[in-house]
Design brief:
globular, two-stranded antiparallel ribbon, twelve-stranded mixed beta sheet, alpha+beta
Amino acid sequence: MLAQFPLCKYYRISIMSTNLANSDINSNIATQERPANALTPSQYNGGQLSKTLASSNPTELKNAFFIDWFEVTMKPSQVPINWEEKGGEFALDDGYIVFKLTKPNGTKHYQRGYNIWIDGFDFGQLLVDPRNPKILKGNPVQFKMYNNVLYEREWIDRFTQFRSAMEYQVTSYTRVDIAIDGYNYLDQWKKVMSGDLKRVGRKAFFKTHYEDGKELEMTGIDLGSKSSDKMITVYKKGARIAVDNKRYIKNAWEKNGFTDLKNVERIELKMKSKCIKGMKEFKYLNIIILL
């Protein structure tokens, strides 16, 4: 119940690499194929890396969960790559992994950034060469997986392959967003607003969003501040999809048995490094959430 959401330290999260296709809370199932006229991921970025698809007859589910943001800091286990020497574009592991320099001026904390292709498709972004090695010790890198890849069933396997080929060790989680999709989540908060349900626990910052010109049409709520190390947002994801044009999320919903796509709502837990560090044995190799 939304009125009783605990703070981040009370979330129980464990990790296991398992197929939840037959459970009521289903894991993300990738699309099986992409159209023949889809030449690049920008034209169609759903299911681009999927090799297998579990055979099932999906039924209408109550909930499905996804990882919507995955960003980690890693360190090399061997002598790190001289990125400046490698230049603007190069390949590793017999061409399986390709790097292209896309941020030659880097970011605030890293000197340059590369786009990564795995098996010929966009995979993620890698920031390398810390500007201040006294602060970022051990020559770490920062990796962010592209959003569409997270909705493919094999994203954990692909990341493990990439990390193994580069001989990287995950040292911290920069940001992880966990999404639970379903229906009528906002109805619970409406009961809080009307007084039918009472909020308990510590009083936290919250903000309610309404549709323009329709004061009573609630579109979402934020629990917590965007600047904090954890935040929960609940909103009408189905309505947003039409604007964002993320077809790969629609495909994932359909594969998980959702039929009323325009009315799908989302509960999203956004966690930054400090919050995740407070969780016991948080690891990327398992993705099952126990709230």
